[in-house]
Write a structure and sequence with these properties.
By secondary structure, the chain is α/β, with parallel strands linked by helices. It has 23 helices and 29 strands. The strands form eight sheets. A six-stranded mixed beta sheet has the order 10-16-15-14-11-13, covered by helices on one side. A five-stranded parallel beta sheet has the order 1-3-4-6-9. β3, α5 and β4 form a beta-alpha-beta unit. α2 crosses α10.
Amino acid sequence: MEKVEKILQSLTLEEKAALCQGASFWFTKEYPDKGIEAIMMTDGPHGLRKQTGESDHLGINKSVPSTCFPSAAAMCNSWDEELIQKIGEALGEECQQEEVSVLLGPGTNVKRSPLCGRNFEYFSEDPFLSSNMAKSHINGVQSKGIGTSLKHFAVNNQETRRMNVDAVVDERTLREIYLASFETAVREAKPWTIMAAYNKVNGEYCCENHHLLKEILRDEWGYEGVVVSDWSATNDHPKGMEEGFDLRMPYAGEVKNQKIVDAVKNGTLSEEVLDASVRRILTMVLRGMENKKPGSKYDVLEHHALARQAAAESAVLLQNRGNAVPVEKTERLAVIGSLAKFMRFQGGGSSHVTPTMHRNFLEVLDNDYPEVSYCYARGYRLKKDMIDEEYVEEALQCAGEADRVVLFLGLPNGWESEGFDRTHLSIPDNQIDLLKCLSKSGKPVIVFLFTGAPVEMSWAEQADAVFAMYTAGQAAGEAIAELLFGEANPCGKLSETYPLKLSHTPCSLTYPQKERAVYEEGIFVGYRYYEKKELPVQYAFGHGLSYTTWEYSNLCLDKESMKDNEVLTVTVDITNTGNRAGKEIVQLYVRDPECSVPRPVKELKGFRKVFCEPGEMKQAVFELNKRSFAYYNTEIADWYAESGTYEILVGASSDDIRLRKAVTVESTITIKKTYDAYVTMGELMEIPAGQQIVNGMMAGYQMPEISPEEKERILNDEDNVEDVAMDYAAMGMDMPLTKVADMSEGAFTEEAVMGIVQMLNQ
């Protein structure tokens, strides 16, 4: 951009350095005489948190009113890319009104453990779903001329010691899980900024991480935007700039600018690298300046209606025994639980916003449903996990006067938040005790559950119906009423697995770790882990019920075999076989049953949300490419789709696969394997030349001598003869070539071994 270059040339070294640090808590540096204005960056992913008074990055001080949409954990349960893009557009409009140029979000870190205190801000345990939802969010916000900041890059999966913990993760896991959650969003949506995380990855802080920033983000992914620090995450700014880092936030004193100046003067930071950072920052600032629309106003009621729709479509009906829901408005309800009045509709920390409006469920009933008769009882204390017999008695009396019980359960404010991790997966004991008491009343019990992440739910058997609402935003009360009375048909599905217990989770033995968080579970995160271990779960990834029923049929692949550089088109027919209009989330998984490396049982590679009237059929269409079949091969440092037969699985959830078909994929990549003297006999048998070598060697091989008596016993025991033969074969196949030479008593020389190795590597 010519204007950027002109400004860059006019700047002194000191001015360039100052532009690489914020001027205050939320604003970038300005030089009015150079045509550079300050632009504002502020939280948050699901609602604008603009502070006009005292600033903080913890959600403590007040912010201007803005629409509080469902958090990422809730929104992802909608699996609706179009809906989340609309929310992004609404957030962009609110930023325009408040003259905010960059909105700090979305957060797309993979949910490694359900204990992470910030999981409510993140989308999913699955990187494919997470990255696509993030892409839609970014596209929505940026379509309004507002920048985004995709965060927290990368491997930021615990709040404990979040500012200095070292996430130790192998390259394949890094690529397939933790970076894959960012990659599609970065490549396709091109966020204005990417926020580098506090933590270290494999020994290097994210703001200075050569592998993450230089090799992958800049060189491989071709990212051209600004890399900004999480607030106060920068450690060595000049070193970070050499790796592709740009902007330190917030302002931390002139001494930080001087370090950049000194680094240029002493030669540890080239001015060309500094200029590259300044160029990126100026491009962002000028975009922010040019896209401002003074006097912009957004429609508060329209945005609230969108929040209401999002809350309803993000709710997940986990169970519905005996069609306990929906309920008729003529039935008398017992509304029980303090969370019905003091609703937990958002999480804590930097994303905590001041809503433009909010009504609790009781207010919604009073104002919007005057025809509904109900009584209310608190049932339990929120601030203290203690059983209050007076509260319980009041709840039981209320239930006795009603036809159905609507019970509000969940985690109180302060039980999960940015800044700390949970230590268990339970909801308060006093809530569970109340549910057990109410279940004995004989009245159907309908639970609405408010959490930011999964909880243990052994108590679910005491309820007839359960809705997972998550942190559903300011319109949660209205959405609950619509779902309860059947005005909205539940269509959300879980974007993460609900385990039976904490000890079943992938990293339960070590999470969280304080200095070195070693990702020993590797690629087996979320449903990938539970399926590989064959562990039962409370509710599977992708699970969610509806008030209607769905039929899957006519799964078609446009080809039976393909090369890995081709595209496979998959179609499936979805029919609404019930009597209510509704939406179904169709999930496509890919399975590699015979891979040469450990892989998950299956992996999500496509999803579509389909709306159908009763009796209507629609076709869901998917396109699969090389990445749909590939794993990250560290030997070639690239994605590799191994030649072989793969299964295409289509279903309603990860544990409800309705249809499947096979496709043969031929790899266009030939991997040249390097052999040494420790190649095993079994590995030799996998290649034609090696088979000839092994057969020649084995031709003269004699079985160990055994006594005549033992030989007679073995010959008379047919099963045992087979077992012995198999034992010898297994040991032989695992023996390295050089060890065969050692045990051949000179018949097979070291020179012969090296000759074979040389031949194999030609």
